[in-house]
Write a structure and sequence with these properties.
Blueprint: H1 12-26, H2 28-60, H3 67-111, H4 122-132, H5 139-164, H6 168-193, H7 196-199, H8 201-209, H9 213-222, H10 225-249, H11 251-277, H12 283-295, H13 304-312, H14 316-326, E1 346-354, E2 365-373, E3 377-381, H15 388-395, E4 403-408, E5 411-412, H16 418-422, E6 425-429, H17 439-444, H18 454-464, H19 467-471, H20 493-509, E7 514-518, H21 526-539, E8 544-549, E9 560-565, E10 568-573, H22 575-581, H23 584-597, H24 604-608
Parallel strand pairs: 3-8, 3-9, 6-7, 7-8
Antiparallel strand pairs: 1-2, 1-4, 4-5, 9-10
Helix pairs in contact: 1-2, 1-3, 2-3, 2-5, 2-12, 3-5, 3-14, 4-14, 5-6, 5-12, 5-13, 6-10, 6-11, 8-10, 11-12, 18-20, 22-23
């Protein structure tokens, strides 16, 4: 097998530097205080040894002047007892601030630009996914490790200083030896893990499936739970066996270095003993020098702090890389003009072409022309895959056209502030989000600046036909919409539809200028969809509205209807005009009506509503 590729985040130096930057960026004053306390704590053993030597020297001199060293020793002992606990409590509090700042950076990176292109870019996702993981050691563990590591290494350096005062070359030799020992252990640890985390993707995915309610249903229904456990175990052990094999390959090297360290210490103690026998080292000096040899082990022996530095900061290079990628011009959304009160005239798609980055040779649109008039309702219909949802994403600047342009009141959309424009577009998609939060938040997220305005919430619920639903909740607007929490409740598909519609209407009340329903009722029957679309058109009359559906029979009340096929508008007009045209719309309308209830077209209104 080839040598494992070294993963950047396993390089302690790079991860550590990024981690230190995060810590001091989270609170310079507190970080400086904790560092000073860690250094002071690390100096305590050396200080105690010096005071002990002082005390022994006074005792050998006849016992005069013992008060000062005794008081000094008492002070050192009290500080030794109090300082670690105080520092630990402060670190415990501070590490949550550091972890919070790390999470803020990840969220800001994912959410900081208007388009969705970066969230579908493999290179960006390969950085964001590990950066957002919560099952790795957190940067809070790294924070604890930084100050703990500092304290233990200062213990070693303090011990080296004491030995230096006896034989400087012995101190230098042991410092270099312990550094070499620690370096080799860290390096072999890094090499042993190699590409492990990349190879763990499949086992980790299988493990997470067990805890997902949606997957858990299928696991039980299809009965592959046992197979899943076997696949996880096999995948996990396959990866870990390579780790164990790599560790065994360097074990003799580690043992050899350890033997060299032991031999060196035997020689150092031999030199100290000979110096004591010759009278060069008096008792008070021996008390100081001898323990310092053992204290220097802190410079190289790996401990929980060493591991914490390597693993706790592991995600930080991923965050930095994701931030650098997202900042590239290809993901930027130019434009600074305000879209306030727009559109006043119309939104126009002019010769728009588009293809997804993952399918560069399969254009979805070729010279698409479309007009969305302000203050009117437009329905867009077409078969699945015709490009209806992508059209909304282009309208909302979640993607940019690859050719042509989109204008708003004759102004290119690219000249408008992208995020401000997105606030003008309120869209409810087929896969709209069900927030497992309060009913108020589920509706109020349409315009979060008005979230606390209960009158607005009540009006949105009333217009969406959700007032009775809200009133029936045990805690009204504060009811959590999931049974995962005490006092929460589950909703049916139709009830969730009304909550989503209320959110869109709340957005319009909050200032959105274009309202879009992108097949949010696709899982409902025709009657239910017609009822919802009819209510939508009734309560949004005079607002620029866009209805998207693959059901031709449910949008007949829209002011204008366009038919998309193979990335182009092939028909447009009112329902009556399109039926008279007897083209694709008319044929699909009749076909879907016949499939629905096998009723003649003349009597369709009795089934699907009144037009």
């Amino acid at each position: 097998m080839d040598a494992p590729e070294k993963i950047p985040w396993l390089k302690p130096r790079r991860s550590t530097l990024l981690g230190l930057s995060l810590i001091w960026g989270s609170g310079r004053g507190m970080a400086n205080l904790l560092m000073a306390m860690s250094i002071a704590e690390g100096l305590l053993p050396a200080t105690f040894a010096v005071v002990a030597g002082w005390l022994v020297g006074r005792a050998r001199a006849g016992g005069e002047g013992l008060t000062a060293p005794l008081v000094a020793m008492a002070v050192v002992l009290v500080i030794s007892e109090a300082l670690p606990g105080l520092r630990g409590a402060l670190v415990e509090s501070f590490q949550h601030r550091v972890s919070g700042r790390r999470r803020e950076r990840v969220i800001a990176t994912a959410q900081g630009i208007a388009s969705l292109a970066h969230l579908e870019n493999p290179e960006v996702l390969d950085s964001l996914r590990p950066a957002a993981r919560t099952d790795w050691p957190d940067t809070g563990a790294f924070t604890t490790a930084v100050f703990g590591y500092t304290s233990t290494r200062v213990v070693g350096l303090g011990s080296a200083a004491l030995l230096f005062s006896f034989r400087w070359w012995l101190a230098v030799a042991l410092v270099l030896l312990w550094w070499w020992f620690g370096h080799v252990l860290r390096q072999t640890q890094s090499d042993a893990w190699g590409d492990t985390f990349e190879r763990m993707r499949r086992p980790e995915h299988l493990r997470h499936l067990v805890f997902e309610a949606t997957a858990a249903k299928e696991i039980r229904i299809f009965g592959f739970g046992g197979w899943l456990i076997e696949q996880f175990s096999q995948g996990w052990y396959d990866v870990m066996r390579d780790v164990w094999r790599r560790r065994r390959a360097v074990r003799f090297k580690q043992i050899g270095i350890l033997v060299a360290v032991l031999v060196a210490h035997v020689l150092v103690f031999y030199v100290i003993v000979q110096a004591a026998r010759s009278g060069e080292l008096r008792a008070e000096h021996l008390v100081v020098v001898a323990p310092s040899v053992l204290g220097m082990a802190r410079l190289g022996i790996p401990d929980e702090y060493t591991m914490g530095l390597a693993s706790g900061a592991a995600v930080l290079p991923h965050i930095e890389k994701a931030e650098e990628l997202v900042a590239q011009p290809r993901f930027a959304s130019a434009g600074t003009r305000s879209p306030e009160s727009m559109p006043r005239d119309a939104v126009r798609f002019e010769k728009v072409g588009f293809n997804y980055a993952s399918r560069p040779d399969e254009p979805l649109y070729r010279e698409l022309d479309l007009v969305i008039p302000a203050g009117k309702s437009l329905a867009i219909v077409g078969a699945n895959g015709a490009g209806k949802t992508t059209l909304v994403k282009l309208l909302a600047r979640l993607y940019e056209p690859t050719s042509g342009r989109i204008t708003v009141d004759s102004i290119p959309l690219t000249e408008l502030d992208a995020m401000a424009w997105q606030r003008r577009v309120a869209a409810i998609f087929q896969d709209f989000t069900k927030y497992f939060l309060s009913a108020a938040e589920n509706v109020g997220y349409g315009a979060v600046e008005h979230l606390a305005d209960r009158d607005r919430l009540d009006q949105a619920a009333e217009r969406a036909g959700a007032s009775e639903l809200i009133a029936g909740f045990s805690n009204g607007w504060e009811t959590i919409l999931t049974r995962r929490y005490d006092g929460g409740t589950d909703l049916s598909g139709g009830e969730w539809q009304r909550i989503a519609l209320a959110r869109a209407l709340f957005a319009v009340a909050g200032g959105s200028g274009i309202l879009v329903l992108d097949e949010p009722t696709a899982n409902l029957d025709v009657r239910a969809e017609v009822d919802l679309f009819d209510r939508f058109l009734e309560v949004t009359r005079g607002t620029t509205t866009v209805l998207i559906s693959h059901r031709f029979s449910t949008v007949r009340r829209a002011d204008r209807i366009v038919v998309l096929d193979q990335g182009r508008v092939v028909e447009e007009g009112s329902h009556v005009e399109l039926i008279a045209l007897d083209g694709m719309y008319a044929a699909s309308f009749r076909l879907q009506a016949d499939r629905y209830d096998q009723v003649p077209i003349d009597h369709l209104e009795e089934v699907i509503g009144h037009g």
